[in-house]
Amino acid sequence: xxxxxxxxxxxxNNSLQHYSISSNxxxxxxxxxxxxxxxxxxxxxxxALDREQxxxxxxxxxxxxxxxxxxxxxxxxxAVVLDINDNIPVFTRSLYKVPVMENSSQDTxxxxxxxxxxxxxxxxxxxxxxxxxxxxxxxxxxxxxxxxQIRLKKTLDYExxxxxxxxxxxxxxxxxxxxxxxxxxxxxxxxxxxxxxxTSLTSTxxxxxxxxxxxxxxxxxxxxxxxxxxxxxxxxxxxxxxxxLLVADKYxxxxxxxxxxxxxxxxxxxSVIAADGGSPPRTGSTQVHIFVLxxxxxxxIFTQERxxxxxxxxxxxxxxxxxxxxxxxxxxxxGDIIY
Length: 339
Fold this sequence. Notes:
The protein is mainly beta. 2% of the residues lie in helices and 43% in strands. The chain has four domains: 12-80, Immunoglobulin-like (Sandwich); 90-187, Immunoglobulin-like (Sandwich); 195-293, Cadherins (Immunoglobulin-like); 298-339, no CATH class. The strands form eight sheets. It has a four-stranded mixed beta sheet, with no helix packed on it. A four-stranded antiparallel beta sheet has the order 15-17-20-19, with no helix packed on it. Strands 16-22-21-18 form a four-stranded mixed beta sheet, with no helix packed on it. It starts with 15 loop residues before the first strand and ends in a 12-residue tail after the last strand. It is a single-pass type I membrane protein.
């Protein structure tokens, strides 16, 4: 770099002879001679500059003449280092893991990503964008290109998608880019009630059925996770049945616990209720209808223990003397009576 020459009106040895430079770590100076013997300073760079480490280098140049008592003059030089786009944007984190509740409303802020660029001016101005964005991500999230803020475009559903991965790019004004990944982890809320599915049902049951007879098999499922998806079953009211778990708790059995009596109750109609472990819990139910079949467990009973009648001695053969009546609580042929 050529520097403006110092002026010395003297001639010969008394004129300007050389230039010197103060210690600075970046520059040194050469004294050059023109054809007319005038001397000038040439500033030479010793090593590469880095504006991000030192944006300005200050030093002094001294011009010295050749007199017996040398005279000199000094100029202060301030070298301002101009920026070039030699730094890419760098995110504060390479991976952002963000939990979001599945019942978060539309336009909820999911995360704000942030990148910095050591360059200045346009070279350091950052714009954010998503890259290789899937259709699902595009429909679910939106990004502010200036702030790096990511918001929801629609509500989430843990039962459909549990995790989203979004690739984010930060691009500076000079076209250099940095990248990071956002992992959105959808957290479950208790938004699903248990479902009761009957896999096997005996719709008719003999009143002589022994205890522990399996009447029905159910499968209770809840699409939620954790305690929200953990179900328990119960029978409301007084029932002759109980609940038992079968096959590693995957199936629920409806089991006879008390004897049946068709003569007291010929049909049983009740609900099986499943509740999950959420707070508050959600419930689901299914209806069960069972017909109790008769067995011949009742003897005929006369309406009276003793019947008394009177008959005249001259009544003809075949005359009705008296009538007796018996009843049987059983049904069908079991209740038909022969005298």
